[in-house]
Each structure stands twice: as structure tokens, then as C-alpha cells.
Amino acid sequence: METSANTFPKLLQAHARQRPDAPAVREKDLGIWQTWDWARAATEVREIACGLASLGFRGGQNLAIVGANRPHLYFAVVAAQCLRGVPVPLYQDAVAAEMVFMLDDAAIEFAFAEDQEQVDKLLECRELQEAQHPGGQRIRHVVYDDPRGLRHYDQPGLLGYEQLRQLGRAFDTAHPGLFDQAVAAGEPGDVAVILYTSGTTGRPKGVCQTHASFMAAGRGGVETDRLGPGDDIMSYLPMAWVGDHLFSVAQWLVGGFTLNCPESAATVMNDMREIGPTYYFGPPRTFEGLLTTVSIRMEDAAAPKRWMYARFMALARRVGADILTGRPVAFGDRLMYALGNLLVYGPLRNVLGMSRIRVAYTAGAAIGPDLFRFYRSIGINLKQFYGQTETCAYVCLQRDGQVQLNSVGSAAPGMELKIADSGEVLVRGVSVLKEYYKRPDATAEVLDADGYFHTGDAGVIDHEGHLRIIDRAKDVGRLNGPGGTCNGAMFAPNYIENKLKFFPQIKEAVCFGHGRDEVCAFVNIDYEAVGNWAERRGLPYGGYVDLAGKAEVLQLVKDCVEQVNADLAAEEGMEATQIARFLVLHKELDPDDDELTRTRKVRRGFIADKYAVLVDALYGGKAEQFIETQVKFEDGRTGKVSATLKIVQAKQFPPVKAAA
Amino acid sequence: MNAMTEQELSAAAPKGGRRIGEVILDVQNITLRFGGVKALTDISFDVREHEVRAIIGPNGAGKSSMLNCINGVYQPQEGRITFRGQTFRHMNSRQVAEMGVARTFQNLALFKGMSVLDNIMTGRNLKMKSGLLAQALRIGPAEREELRHREFVEHIIDFLEIQAWRKTPVGRLPYGLQKRVDLGRALAMEPQVLLLDEPMAGMNVEEKQDMSRFILDVNDEFGSTIVLIEHDMGVVMDISDRVVVLDYGKKIGDGTPHEVRSNPEVIRAYLGAEH
Questions:
Q1: A639 touching B, CB under 8 A?
Q2: Distances (CA, A) of B91 to A11, A431, B24, B87, B97
Q3: Which segments within A289-430 are labelled E, that is strand?
Q4: Are B35 and B88 within one domain?
């Protein structure tokens, strides 16, 4: 890649010159994969940019992008950058009341929406804005990609994608040179994108990242994993998430590989099989979901197949990861592994759509040891990285041959790490944010005078330079000791919750313990896994609430909790934080009820307040507690669920010295 | 969706909302007997172009029989049906299909072992012009024809949001999805009039909402006139323009949802109020 291209639009143009016929983007439409080569992608971006310009979009303005991973939406991201405007991808499943905050915050007048659903939402936002600040700033123009259902809309400011392109072509002819000048004027220090943080605490903040930062982050990843033309990636995660922006925009334009957009969210598995991506990212829960599907189907398979699967998976667990890493393995085992590859691992990778995977990444949450080992043992090069929106998701990554379960790898090229006295991880380098949009106060809080970004994560760096994240720095609390409140053992709630969530039966867990005498927990069962388990045992149940309250299910969860306790008993410093009591919640924690963030992290404080009566019951030594909860459905209506929850005492184990 | 089908384009031409047109289907004085049992007695009503017309009534009121008369499965002893200016003593089911009337079935009439795609393709049967041999060998025009039909079917799959199950045998799908496939098969005929026999029977609230949305979208996007039988009064009142009420084979009400709801006879039939 030529180095003179120092912004993303210039990179796109360079690709269009160097490899005009190579595939840039694919999308499955009407059952057939449609391909845009680089030349066509560059042309469409030009038309969108000129179309936006003809509507009055100028440099310095922000363009909201709302929808699923569609080629036209990715083009719109680059088109905004061409005009030195800033794309602002928003989570497409946010409701209008949430979205209007970001539209106001970023003073957005132009939006690019996927379909009728998003257009309706943006129009609703406009009404809200009109009501909240009459005559003030509001959404003026909405461009939509899919015209279905929108034919009879006559609201002002609505425009279809094809009409936008027509306007663009006319504008380009009428103003020759304007587009090229705008692209040429782009500076690496310009803000390339504003990504809103999911807001585990407080209101979302807009993170401003420059072309230089995201390009450096993209280049670091592309070089580490030798990605380039010929590689294929599946783009299926929310565009508003920093990871998708890193993989599907920054690395795409730096590396020049092919983006593949699935037909719909429900077809990702099928589309994966057809495309056979070479590069894949999934949060741990996606990998977990895939494994659950495989496990369920294996349990239904015929006995010989089950036997073969069990036998070869045992071999894979023993030697598979070592073979992948390149460690010495006995010749006999290698031979058997090759046979297994033919009979089990290969077909299994194929079913998962991972036959051609060279590099797979996971991040965002801790991944379970069994899960991580499973994928590596069947020959999928699954690795971890670490980063956040403020660092372009680029701080640490695992190099081939240095993959460990517990660490997130060592500092990525161009990045420096430091651990503060409080245990917080501090980061300095190429990918650190420019600022929070219009929030100098918040920027000053996280960026110190030396240029270190305060991640808010607590971690340790081992002697090889690998970073290990324990918990959120602010979440790390202390139990009550003999001498008073909060001076007992260190309590890392996420660490314990993750151990619980590694069991396929447990979907979410919330632990309490800071300023308490002992640790108690809420548990959410995994409806699919536990439901299947119940059906297998002929255990009748009438929906989620009923299933969650069954004595057999409580026993199942109790076994999981006690295993975690046994684990904790063996870890130095963690013995005291074994779980004393727990209950199984009657409803799934849900982002629509504000209990989880949009990226599905638990909001512990909010949950503790909302379910205060349950927390009191756990610590008050009650045997059961009645609760009624309001729930919000996807269409915005509300309802109520109620149940009487049993509180279960878990067995605790005496501390054991860690085995060598 | 990039390319629009011909039909969508023609429907798109007159902009600005759904417009209800002339009477397209006129049912006059239909009486249907099975031996000594009168299933329908002297039923008359009409259906206007582009409207959503509901037929409601308690169990055994003769709703399905009425649909069966319209599409020629049953032949009424008395009465006439006028469709697009042509008057018939009784309809013939092939002829009805060729005139652009499609229907879905209360108990589903799908090929359980065939994929979703193939099931919807069967709806294109009447539109296939090339001969059996040419189709079997997929030569020249037959192949082009199949590609054209496949494209149309893919639009329907996209429209009904069932891409994920394109290749799945229908028998393996949950009931709500099978209903959607049944609708897809009917849509594949590019019907001018769509007869829906209890499209929402046995569905949960969410599935009913989805189905209502699809029915309104079909009406809106494809411009199809819709005649539907439904039990769920909430749904009927929400989505239909006019309602016919049957009870014991007789028409006891006809009008807008609001008029029908306040009709004392209808209330009596549904609630069994005192005489």
C-alpha cells in the first residue's frame, strides 16, 4: 500500500487505482452474492458524497449511520469522510428516546438509515426534538437504503439511495473538482469517526478518533496477522461498535481485503459457510453459541458418531492446541490427530463455516477455558486482543505462537502499557483518543498530562509482558474484614461472574460483596441450554419463569456455583470470595430494561437498586422472596412478571494451596 | 432491494396512499347445500379493488365454505359471482387461479418434504410456459424462464423475511413460519385477489403482529385485494376496511369495523345475549 494515503478516503482511491477489479465488498441479495469491486465501491462513495454535498452536507458536520451491516452504509461512512465530515454510527437496536440523546449531542442534521424501521425511528426522534427544543437543531435529511414500505411517506427531508446517487452525479458534473479537492484536503489529524461508548456508567460519550489513530490501529493488526487482498471477513456485528469499525473499515481499507455482508442477521451461519471467511471476529458469546449448537446436535447424533466425536475430541484436547502452537507432539498422536482432522475436526470446522479461517479473534469479555481450548484444539487459530473504544480497540494482541488463555497478549505495535499503583491499566500510543466530543471535562478525567489513557480496568503484567485483566478497576471492592467495613479480602465481581458464565447453563450472573460479609449472587439461566436439558429429562415447564424456579434447575445451578467455589478455594487471594448464597432470577436481564448495556455488560449498580428487595433477602437470611418486575417488550409496550424466588445456600470449600 | 418487480413498479406509479377502487368481486345471492344441510343461505356482498375485506363469524358459520365457493372448490346451487365484469354461475378452480385469485389454507397446504424455496416456486406453476421436457432438461428458454421465476420468488422470500430458511424443508419449520410460507406460495401467483383462510390461527401475539404487518404490506406494496377469514376480533378490527359477518350460513352484518361492532345482531351472535 502506498504510504502517501494518509486518510481513509485516500486509501479507498488508492485501492481503486491499484486493484480496480478485485472484490472490495460482497452482499447476499435475493439469494445471490453481489460483488462491488474497488473501482465500483470508489465510484459509489463518490456519488454518495456528492449527493450529500448537494443536500448541504459540509466538512465539520456529522452524519448519523443507523442500520445493519450493509455495503451502502459502509460506503456512507467513507463518503462522509471524503467531505471532511464525520460519520457517527449508532446502535440500530436503540429506541428513539436513547437515540435522540446522541443526535442532539453530536448536533446531527443528516442521517443515513438502512430501512423503514430506522426511518420511522429517526422521524420519531425528530418529533421528540421538536417537542424538547422547538425550532432548535434537529434531523433535517434522512437517506434510506431499502425503499420497502417507504413509498407513501411524504415527510420532508426523506430521500432514497438511488435518488441520492442521481443528485450526486448531477452535482459532480456541475461542480467538477470539488470532490477531489475535498478528499485531497483531508488531514490525518482530522476526526475520522465518532463512536459512542456504551455507557456502563452515566450517559454515552462520543469518542473522537482521528484518521491517524484508526489507521495506525488498522495497520498494526494487518501487519501482525499478515492480512491483505485475498482475505475475507464477515461483517455482522453492530457498526456502532468500535471492533466492527476497526475490522470492517480501518483494517479493510488498510489491508484491502474483502468485506462480506450477510443477507440478514438470521442467516449469518449459512452465509459463513458459503463465504468461508479467512479472518473472523466474534465476542465470546458468539463462540459459545456456536459450541452450544454443536453440542446439542452431537447429543442427538447416532451412537457411533457420538463415540467418534468423544474419542477424537479427547485427543484434540490433549494435543490439538500444542500442534497449532507448534510445540513438540509425539508422532503417534500427530498421526491420530491427522486422522481426526479428516473425520471430525475438518467437517466440524466446515459446519461452523470456519474451514478457511487463518485468524479468529475474540474480545470484549473473558472467554471460558473450555471454550477457548475447544476452538484451538480443532485447529482454529483463535486469539484474544484487548482494547476499548477510546483506543480503537487496539492495545494488546496475541501473536501467533504466544497465545495464552489468561492473558490478552502483549502491547500492540506502537502502544505502551503501565500499571498504576491502584492496579489500573494505563495506555499510551498511536490509537489513544483525541477527545470526547464536546466534553473536555470527561477527556481530562481519562487522559493525564503524560498522555496516558486511564482504561478503568484493573490488571497485571507478567514477566513476559503479557497483560492479564482481572476486573473493572472501580468494580474491584473489598469484603468486610474483622476490623470493620471494606478492609477484608479483595473482591473482583466480574472475575467470579465470568467463572459462572463459563457454564453453558448460566447466561448471566451478578455478584455482590463490596462492603458485605460474604459474596452472594443472582444467576440467569440460559433458556436454550437449560430448556434442552429439561426436555431431555422429561421435565415439563411452562416458559422461562417456571423453568427458572424448578427445584431440579436450582440443583443444576447449585452444582455450577459449588464448582466455582472449589475453583476459588484453590486461588490465592480469592478463597474468601466464595459464593455463600444465590438465587435464580425469574426474568432474563435485558438491555431494554437497562439492566445490561447494549454490548451486554451487566450494570451492577442499577441491578442492585432495582432488585434491592432481593439483595436484602439474600443477606437477610430469608428462604424465599416474592418479586414483581416491570418488563419492556421490543415494541416498547410494558408488562409485569412476578415470582417467588428461592434462596439457595451453596457449599463452600476450605482454602487449598494452589497446585503446582 | 435494488430492482423492483414489474408489478411493484406499476403499483408505485400512482403515488400517495392506498386507494380503494371499483367493485372487483361481487357475490350475489349464493346458496350452498350439502344434501339437506344449508351451509350458506342467500349471501351477497362485494369486494372493492385494493381493500382488505374480512369475513367473520362463529365456528360453523360458513366462512370457509364462502371462500371455497369463490375459488371454485364448492359449487353453489344458487346465485352468481361476478369477477372483473364476468359473471359465473359457479367458478372453476383452475380458471379462478388463472384469473388471478390465490388463497392460503386454514390447515396449510404445503409440501412438507420440500424446501421453502421449492414450495413457493410451486406458486409459479401457472406462469411457467415452457413444456415439461424443456423444463426437465433445462434447455434454453426453459432455463431463462426458471431464472426469472426464481428471481420473483427471491423477492417474496426477501419480503417475508424468511431468507434463513430458504433451503429448509417446510415440515421442520415452526407453525408460524409455515403460515408465512403458505402466504409466500399464494403471493408467487401475483394474485389480484388474495383469499386468506384464518392466516393467524394458532399463532402467539408476536406472530400475529408480524402476520398483520405482512398482510398490510402485501396490500400496500403489491396492491393485492385481500379477503380474509379471521377469528381474532382485535386483528380484524385493526386491519380490515370492511367486514362481513356470517352466522349459521346467513349474513347478519356488513360494513366498516366500527359499524359491525355496534350492530346488535352481531353482538348477539358473538356474545349470545338474551333475545
A1: no
A2: 66, 73, 15, 9, 10
A3: 359-362, 382-386, 396-397, 410-411, 415-419, 424-429
A4: yes
Choose among B16, B159, B161: nearest Cβ to A264.
B161
Per-residue cell: B41: 343461505
Provide, for chain A, the percentages of residues in helix, strand and coil under a 3-state DSSP scheme, each rounded to the nearest 5. 40, 20, 35
A-chain residues near B154 (CB < 8 A): 30-32
Instruction: Please check whether residues B140 and B254 belong to one and the same domain.
Output: no
Those residues of chain B whose CB sits closer than 8 Å to some CB in chain A are 1-2, 12, 15-18, 150-151, 154-155, 157-159, 161, 163-164, 166, 209, 217, 220-221
- Confirm or reject contact between A154 and chain B (CB < 8 A): yes
* pLDDT at A401 exceeding the cut of 90: no
Residue B237 grid cell: 378490527
Q: Which ipTM value was assigned to this complex?
A: 0.71
State how many domains chain B has. 2
Beta bridge partners of residue A625, listed in sequence order = A645
CA distance B15 to chain A (A): 7
- Measured distance CA(A531)–CA(A538) in Å, rounded: 10
Query: Which H/E stretch holds residue A582?
Result: strand A579-584
Cβ contact, residue pair A152, B164, below 8 Å: no
* Domain A8-213 belongs in CATH node 3.40.50.980: yes
Q: With an 8 Å Cβ cutoff, are A270 and B16 in contact? A: no
Q: Is the pLDDT of residue A200 over 60?
A: no
Q: A8-213 and A477-649: same fold?
A: no
Instruction: Report the CATH fold assignment for A477-649.
Output: GMP Synthetase; Chain A, domain 3 (3.30.300)
- Taking CA–CA distances from B168, the nearest residue in chain A reads A270
| pTM of the complete model beyond 0.80 | no
Put simply, the answer to whether A152 touches B18 (Cβ < 8 Å) is yes
pLDDT, chain A, mean: 89
pLDDT number for residue A216: 95
CB of A31 within 8 Å of any CB in chain B?
A: yes
The CATH number given to whatever domain includes residue B55 is: 3.40.50.300
